[in-house]
Specification:
Elements lengths: L1 E6 L2 E6 L4 E2 L2 E2 L16 E2 L1 E2 L6 E2 L7 E5 H6 L15 E4 L8 E4 L15 E5 L2 E3 L12 E8 L13 E7 L7 E9 L3 E11 L4 E12 L4 E2 L10 E14 L2 E12 L7 E5 L26 E2 L9 E13 L4 E19 L8 E20 L5 E22 L13 H9 L7 E23 L4 E25 L4 E6 L9 E21 L2 E12 L2 E2 L11 E2 L2 E14 L4 E19 L7 E20 L4 E16 L1 E2 L2 E2 L11 E13 L3 E12 L2 E2 L9 E2 L2 E12 L4 E8 L7 E6 L1 H4 L1 E6 L4 E9 L1
Parallel strand pairs: 1-5, 11-14, 18-22
Antiparallel strand pairs: 1-2, 3-4, 6-7, 8-13, 9-10, 11-12, 13-14, 15-16, 15-48, 16-17, 17-19, 19-20, 20-23, 21-47, 23-24, 24-25, 25-26, 26-27, 27-28, 28-29, 28-30, 30-31, 31-34, 32-33, 34-35, 35-36, 36-37, 37-40, 38-39, 40-41, 41-44, 42-43, 44-45, 45-48, 46-47
């Protein structure tokens, strides 16, 4: 029997399942007469607030999707979450390995490897800060939860935009597993599986893996060269669990590797002089005008791979101190490496090529006590520590194929000749490197008090101390062969001289709220919360005036919401309205060239509303939909010398909505066909705060479909799926470099993809 999974702020049909989140088993209950029980919405218990609660009773906005739903719907990457999370956008400037999340207009227009975003990512409650730590993770999951709004108390690092929680499956002391094999267009092969078994009555193990590869969907017309925007990755996860009466220990080890050809940006518009902006003509060459190429084609003579690796270990302990108190400890170590190289102009020329390398090591420790008293007062009290140590480099190569001095060799001497003729950056590269260490520590508490059976007060405080050190910072102009020509930071006659910066900040954030439950099926809530995002160094600095430190971000948020189940629990109606005051948003000034400045927008405002509806039309048919409306405005700020007050924030479409139908069609004597068709409409959005039409993505529609045939016991199935049915062409990022480089750049989202997947449980 298919039921509708009912989450906070989300509703979607799915197969009957028992799931768990954060190590706690999910439970489901239903009310009403037995004859009507099959046509009601299912109740899911999760721990979005670090304790077991019915999601419909949790007074915050959350979107959740189960691991089975993700596998059956081919939600395999962070970019796939867009189709199921209203208000979420993902910026792909440097490709799928470097997702930059935006929630309700809270964003980061910075792809530096040393930055931690305003929307934090957690794997099994372990905070994953900058990009080298993300790795491969969308496999063998219990659930993904997206919490919207500032997270200023309970979640690891305080954030201004929200949190994405990824929860893997853990051993449950049974013997079994699953295997799924899928194949689609672009020679896409995906194999995912897991197996577990108890070793003793108190010790169990689970092993999981994924292998995913596909040819690139951006065609490279250069003879003998591979297409780009490919996929090539694998992940391995081992989980060991020891469980006694009052003690639960979970050890996890993860290794993953990616090695795709880079995610290709396509020049979608050219200046009057073409790619090269007339520079090649000065040396007897020709600019490129993309003659004969379409919007899915490039002509790269030497596409490169973008490898990344991640090794991670963690230990989660839950120990009952007594009947009412539980001690939780979460310890982790991560070591991640990420290399990104992109031929930004997408041509056979070598006008502009960028390279980023990052190596990050991180340790974290979260220690908390959670109460479960029978009385009206309960609390969570904890402490948190995080240390990141990053070693990063950034290199921008310009016109690496021009022999400026005409000696027949292209090397650093051409850069020297270019500087002498005041033609820089022709035949030169801008390079920087540094080591960054950031330590963060915090004390936090979360308290709720039941005034009456219908009224509950909630509150929380968090004190955070952050200290950052930037050392051995070196920026140079080099030849495209890597030979230094001149220091730009700190400057002076001594090559390889270095400098540094540091910051130290203290912050108090938190929340306060009230819940009112006039009846068992209706919840009203009103919350105030403050989120904090720590200070940041500018990793894009190539001159002394660019080596700045951005102030911490602050978001003050007020949200009121309704959650309800009506018509004998066949109709779910949820809604929220919110106001954000956004201060010191950390932002990269878009400018007109590749080198950009980290700035702070002093003040912005966000006002919005969200509505979610799900209706169980019959036992086998469920209709659902979500609407998100945003109104964003910069109140004070300057970018590229332009007053941007009155402009909207980036990646904040004013109106977007989703709709879906889930239909279970019984197949007599065999099983059933689960059919899902969903669509998403995303409104116009801007990719820079200058509100330029040239970096604006027009509104677009996408549609997806999935048909899964399965046996009555759901142990065998085959799915036929198609994503982006209408083959809609749209960009996940856009940049306009026409004034300086002669082209505007955009990274297209994947085109229509389709395939089939066979799954078996054992």
């Amino acid at each position: 029997m298919t039921r509708t999974c009912r989450f906070l702020g989300v509703s979607a049909a799915c197969a009957v399942f028992a799931t768990s989140v954060y190590g706690q088993n999910a439970t489901s209950t239903s009310t009403g007469a037995p004859s009507a029980e099959a046509a009601v919405l299912e109740t899911i218990t999760v721990t979005a607030q670090k304790r077991q609660e019915n999601l419909q009773d949790v007074p915050i906005s959350v979107k959740a999707i189960t691991g089975d739903q993700m596998r059956y719907r081919q939600i395999n990457t962070a970019f796939d979450l867009l189709s199921v999370v209203p208000g979420l956008e993902v910026n792909g400037t440097l490709g799928k390995n470097v997702p930059v999340f935006t929630l309700r207009g809270i964003s980061m227009r910075d792809f530096s490897f040393n930055q931690d975003g305003p929307v934090a990512t957690y794997y099994d409650e372990v905070y994953k800060g900058n990009f080298p730590l993300l790795g491969v993770y969308m496999y063998d999951l219990e659930r993904v939860e997206v919490l919207k709004g500032p997270q200023g108390t309970l979640y690891g690092m305080s954030t201004t935009g929200g949190a994405i929680n990824v929860i893997s499956r853990k051993p449950d002391f049974t013997t079994g597993g699953y295997l799924s094999v899928g194949y689609g267009n672009y020679d896409h092969l995906r194999i995912e599986g897991a197996a577990e078994t108890p070793i003793t009555d108190k010790l169990a193990v689970r092993l999981a893996f994924v292998r995913d590869r596909a040819d690139g969907y951006v065609q490279n017309v250069s003879p003998g060269q591979p297409d780009v925007s490919s996929s090539d990755e694998y992940g391995l996860r081992g989980t060991l669990r020891y469980q006694a009466d009052d003690f639960d220990l979970i050890l996890r080890g993860v290794y993953s590797r990616r090695d795709p050809y880079y995610d290709g940006g396509v020049p979608w518009a050219l200046g009057p002089k073409g790619i090269g902006n007339g520079i090649y003509e000065l040396f007897g060459g020709h600019s490129d005008f993309r003659v004969g190429l379409n919007e899915w084609q490039i002509s790269d003579l030497n596409p490169v791979r973008n490898p990344s690796t991640l090794f991670s270990v963690s230990a989660t302990i839950n120990a009952k101190l007594n009947d009412a108190l539980t001690l939780t400890s979460i310890s982790s170590y991560d070591d991640g490496k990420l290399d990104v190289g992109i031929n930004t102009d997408g041509s056979y020329l070598q006008e502009v090529q960028v390279e980023f390398t990052g190596h990050t090591e991180q340790i974290t420790q979260d220690l908390r006590v959670t109460s479960d008293y029978a009385g009206p007062l309960n609390f969570i009290l904890g402490t948190y520590y995080n240390q990141e140590r990053a070693n990063d480099t950034a290199t921008n190569h310009f016109f690496a194929d021009i022999d400026v001095n005409g000696d027949g060799v292209i090397n650093f001497k051409d850069c020297i000749a270019s500087l002498a003729r005041k033609l820089a950056p022709v035949a030169c590269a801008q390079h920087n490197q540094f080591e960054q260490t950031v330590d963060g520590s915090a004390l936090y508490t979360d308290v709720n008090y039941a005034v009456t059976e219908k009224v509950k007060l909630r509150g929380g405080l968090r004190y955070t101390h952050d200290k950052g050190t930037l050392q051995d910072f070196l920026a140079q102009i080099t030849g495209n062969d890597g030979v230094p020509v001149v220091n730009t930071i700190p400057g002076g006659a001594i090559l390889n001289a270095t400098t540094g910066r540091d910051f130290s900040t203290n912050n108090v954030s938190g929340k306060a709220g009230i819940d009112y439950t006039p009846m068992s099926s209706v919840l009203l809530y009103l919350n105030y919360s403050r989120g904090y995002r720590r200070a940041a160094f500018n990793a894009q600095a190539f001159s002394a005036n660019q080596l700045n430190t951005a102030k911490p971000e602050i978001v003050d948020a007020v949200e009121g919401g309704l959650k309800s189940e009506l018509l004998d629990r066949r109709l779910l109606l949820n809604g929220a309205i919110f106001w954000y005051g956004y201060k010191n948003q950390q932002f990269v000034d878009p400018g007109t060239g590749v080198v950009q400045q980290l700035i702070g927008l002093p003040k912005s405002r966000i006002v919005g509303e969200e509505i979610e509806v799900a209706y169980r039309l019959t036992e086998d048919i469920t209709l659902s939909g979500n609407v998100s409306q945003l109104n964003t405005e910069i109140l004070q700020g300057v970018s590229s010398g332009i007053n941007v007050a009155g402009h909207p924030l980036v990646q904040a479409p004013p109106l977007s909505f989703t709709s879906a139908i889930d239909w279970k069609i019984p197949i007599s004597g065999v099983g059933a066909a689960d059919v899902r068709i969903d669509g998403e409409r995303t409104g116009r959005q801007y990719f820079d705060i200058l509100e330029r039409a040239s970096t604006s993505q027009a509104p677009y529609w996408t549609m997806n479909a999935n048909v899964r045939l399965h046996t009555n016991d759901d142990r065998r199935g085959i799915s036929f799926w198609m994503k982006n049915i209408t083959d809609t062409y749209y960009y996940t990022v856009m940049s306009d470099f026409r004034p300086s480089l002669g082209f505007a750049y955009g990274r297209p989202a994947p085109p229509r993809t389709f395939g089939a997947t066979v799954d078996v449980k054992f």
